[in-house]
Amino acid sequence: MIESWIQSHLFEEVPQIMAVLDRSYSVVKANRGFTEAFGDWQERRCYDVLLGKSARCRGCSVAQCFADGSSRTSTADWKDRTGRVGHFVTRIVPIPDERDGVAYALVMATDITKCELLEREHQILFERVPCYVAVLDRQLRIVRANELLRKTFGFNAGRPCHEVLKGSDTRCADCPALRSFEDGGVHTAGSMGTRENGGSAFYVVTTAPLSRRGEPVEHVIEIMHDVSDLKELQTDLERERQFVAATIDQSFDGVVATNKRLRITVFNPAAENLLGITADQVLGTKQLELVYPELFLAVLRQGGRSCVLPETTIRAHGEEIPIRFAGVVVRDGDEMLGTAGFLQDLRDLKRFEREMLDAERLAAVGQTVAGLAHGVKNILTGLEGGLYLVRWGLEDDRRDKLQRGWEMLDRNFDRITTFVREFLNFAKGQVPEVEPTEPNLLVEEVVALFEDAARKKGVSISTELQERIPAANLDREGIHKCLSNLVSNAIDACLLSDEKSCQVVVRTRDRKGCLEFEVEDTGCGMDCEIKRKVFTSFFTTKGTKGTGLGLLETKKVIQEHGGSVDIESEPGVGSTFRLILPRDRLPTATVKNGEETAGGESA
Amino acid sequence: MMGCTGSARFEPISVIVIDDEPDVAAYLAAVLERHGHTAITASTAAEGFDLAKQTRPDVVCVDIVMPEETGTALLRRIRADRDIGRTPVVFITALKREMIPVTLDADGQPSVEPNAFIEKPPNADRFVDAVERAARQARSTS
Fold first, then answer.
1. Per-residue confidence (pLDDT) for residue A600, from 0 to 100
2. Residues within 8 A of A (CB atoms), B 19-38 only
């Protein structure tokens, strides 16, 4: 049964090309594989069918088979029916006749074109892939290695992997190749080797068994991806990070940052000191209200990009601490990456400013001592005059002299009392108690006080107030007194003028971050000498009517508000006194009913 | 000129006292009056200058720090005047003498020396002495 099936079917069914040639090289029989590959063959010579040639090939294997009667194996390139040239492995077997000659030759062939192609692809891949590739045996000896590995590490076939890659006699702990040998699985690990040139190479190694599933693993392929550049970048990045971290740590200013989910990721020691909370308490949390001023939180909510607050406050240690703040929302296009805030503690600066103010005030007091002596000497002379007249009156029994002397004594005692009181007031020096005050209302109050009296003296007072000036932190009483001093001076200057009708104008202005009060008169004006002296001594042009302290006091109050006084004056034309108060230097309002009032204007 | 007796050891002289402090002017005038001299007062330099031109006094006593015109400015004006240019001028001031060139001649004008300089508060006798000496010197040089 089997014999007969083989006889009748084998020739047709084998997965090979088969043909029988007679001694004239004509194809006398061929199987289905042959016909499918080369097409029609009846009554054609083999060289015609297989190569499209008209003559037999030089060194023809079939001819040799006919000649010596032996079988042989060789290779050949044949052209198929479509014209494609394929590579074949051939086996030629003689078919004998009755007289021990060779009547026919059986040609069997296998097309190995595809296998060859695959092998070449594999070879190229193995050699050219930008990784180190090696095949290891069970002793971890390198059987084959690709070009990159050979070049980078130097290579003698048969040396163990750890010796070639690391110059080490011992196997690596946790060797992935060993695990692949043991469990037939794929494994990955990171490792560091030494190049032939002595440099370090960092690579990620993947090992895979070279065997069919279930069979013992004889070889493992090891593919190593060099990540040295990446590692170098990582190292650089880490150094950079450490540098930034050290800078932030050592910064005198508080530095706070969050990630895009607004969790706090940076909180440096300066911030800990300033805000009185530890990094542990806030890192990883979303307690932004503890670390950012409310204005920056508003910027964040509104999708803003940055916020600079030259002077603001933040609550810490149970009090409002003055700080300068810069906050930024880091964005890449529309994507928010995080936030950062820089908090500068202004307490020392504020203290310094206060000390400066004290120093200025003391300097003003110092300058005033000469003026004080002058004023006191005049009063003393008056007292002495009084005594002289009283003595004269008593000695010569002159009632008129006695009377005049007594009046003189009386008057000058009054003067020196007032003088000493005002000087003590001036020298006392105090931090002004400020509260949010409407500048325009204050001016209106002062002008109302003087209006009637001025009109009776023929002087008209008017106001030119800029509209909607925001309230500012002012010592209400102090500024009221300053304005009263200036308005009273202006009226006096008008009375001293030769002009019949004089005007006093009081103005308010809010520009370039400064609040300004201005009192202008068309009175007598001042020459250089008087201008120079108005603030530096107990100088008065009003004879016995003034103590000479009014303007000095004005200057003091304005200085305590961090401001300055400006004078423009021309004899016979008039004077302008300007109180200039930079809003960002105004004192912070005292906290009332737990409600905070902001300091100056913040941007 | 000789033969003066009594409290007025010196022939009576006429003096203009200029001070913006009326009490000071009144005091100095009273001192001079009690020593037998005549004195009139003025509260500004301008008023004093006019009086001096009209009455040709023997001596002008003037304060330095006064509103409008100062004593030093008045002194310059008197020295420059043809009629009263040789009238002795005595400064009566609360300023220290060394402060004067600095405080009042800062405008670059040459400092003009007064005939006498009395600091406030003045001693009455010394004041009369200085005024009388100034008058005597002026008479002896004329």
1. 39
2. 20-24, 26-28, 30-31, 34
Mean pLDDT over the full length of chain A:
85
What are the pLDDT digits (tens) for A28-41?
999 999 999 999 99
- The structural domains of chain A, with segments of one domain joined by +, span 2-111, 117-231, 252-339, 350-428, 435-585
Convert the pLDDT of each residue in A153-209 to its tens digit. 887 778 999 999 888 889 888 899 999 999 888 999 988 888 888 888 899 999 999
Burial class (CB in 10 A: 0-12, 13-18, 19+), A395: exposed
Domains and CATH numbers, chain B: 14-141 (3.40.50.2300)
**pLDDT tens digits, one per residue of B81-127:** 999 999 999 999 877 666 554 334 445 555 678 889 898 888 899 99
- Does domain A2-111 match CATH 3.30.450.20? yes
3-state secondary structure of A391: helix
Question: What is the enclosing helix (H) or strand (E) of A421?
Answer: helix A399-428
Strand partners for A22: A104
H/E element holding A269? helix A269-275
CATH superfamily of A252-339: PAS domain (3.30.450.20)
3-state secondary structure A81-110: CCCCEEEEEEEEEEEECCCCCEEEEEEEEE
Longest CA span, chain B: 47
Chain B CB within 8 Å of residue A380 CB: yes
Is there a contact between A315 and A284 (Cβ–Cβ < 8 Å)? no
Q: What are the backbone dihedrals phi and psi of residue B92, each rounded to the nearest 5 degrees, phi first? A: -120, 110
Structure ipTM over 0.85, yes or no: no
**Any A CB within 8 A of B108 CB:** no
Distance to chain B for A385, nearest Cα, Å: 4
Name the least confident of A263-277, A350-364, A484-498.
A350-364
**Distance (Å, whole) CA B76 – CA B84:** 11
Domains A2-111 and A117-231 share a fold: yes
Give the pLDDT score at B111.
61
CB A164 within 8 A of CB A155: yes
Tell me if B23 and A373 make a contact (CB, 8 A cut-off): no
For domain A435-585, give the fold: Heat Shock Protein 90 (3.30.565)
Distance from the Cα of A592 to chain B's closest Cα (Å) equals: 47
Tokens of A193: 């080797």
Q: According to the model, what pLDDT value does residue A547 have?
A: 47
Contact A392 B27 (CB under 8 A): no
* Residue B99 CA: distances (Å) to CA of A370, A540, B64, B96, B112: 10, 19, 11, 5, 14
Q: What is the pLDDT of residues B2-24, one digit of tens each?
A: 333 334 466 899 999 999 888 99
Stronger pLDDT, B53 or A545, i.e. the higher one: B53
Contacts of A392 in chain B (CB under 8 A): 30, 34
Over residues A240-244, mean pLDDT: 92
Which residues of B fall within a CB distance of 8 Å from A529?
Answer: 70, 107
In which band, very low, low, confident or very high, does the pLDDT at A538 lie, cut at 50, 70 and 90? very low
Residues B18, B64: Cα–Cα separation, whole Å: 9
Name, in order, each residue with C-beta under 8 angstroms of A233's C-beta and a sequence gap of 6 or more: none
d(CA A26, CA A191): 65
Establish whether the linkage from the previous residue to A216 is cis, with ω within 30° of 0: no
Query: CA A232, A238, A241, A243: dihedral to nearest 10 degrees?
Result: -80
pLDDT at B63 over 60: yes
User: Which CATH architecture best describes the domain A117-231?
Assistant: 2-Layer Sandwich (3.30)
Q: Cβ of B102 under 8 Å from any chain A Cβ?
A: no
Interchain contact B71–A (C-beta under 8 A): no
